[in-house]
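Dear colleagues,

As part of the handover before I leave the project, I'm documenting each prediction I ran so the next person doesn't have to rerun anything. This entry is a single chain, and its sequence is reproduced below.
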Amino acid sequence: MNIGQAAEASGVSAKMIRYYESIGLIPKTVRTEAGYRVYSDGDVHTLGFIRRARDLGFSVEQIAELVALWRDRGRASADVKRIALEHVDILERKARELQEMAATLKHLARHCHGDERPECPIIEGLEAGRAIRPAGAHPVPQFGAARVQSARRGPARNGRASRPAQ
């Protein structure tokens, strides 16, 4: 089958198939005299394996290891399990970071008046490289550990809030 048919059958785009071939994740395919790639059912099966691994968020490097282990019938399942559990750790860390970012943004949004005034803790937090975090939240790496005190601004002067002395 040609690359378009292989893409449709595997769920991997033709562009990604070419990329996976260029980096050696899949072997170079047989070509016709006209230079067209020809894929076998085995190639499509490998591409499907790769697509499912990508769907689970494995990196290309991890997928290369998994493909090698998949092809090695003498493999130890412990090697596969190690890769999977390392990936679980990465996913759980990312999930915690996303939860912390969401909590930070919710907290900032609660402190933003959302009216016609220009003062906005969200903008000020982004500008200063810091953010107000809910109590007990870990620092969000993009914002650092300091807190913006914009929610405690003084009375407005000339349409702008005054900043307390720091």
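The CA atoms of residues 62 and 86 lie 10 Å apart. The longest strand covers residues 30-31.

All the best with the project,
I.
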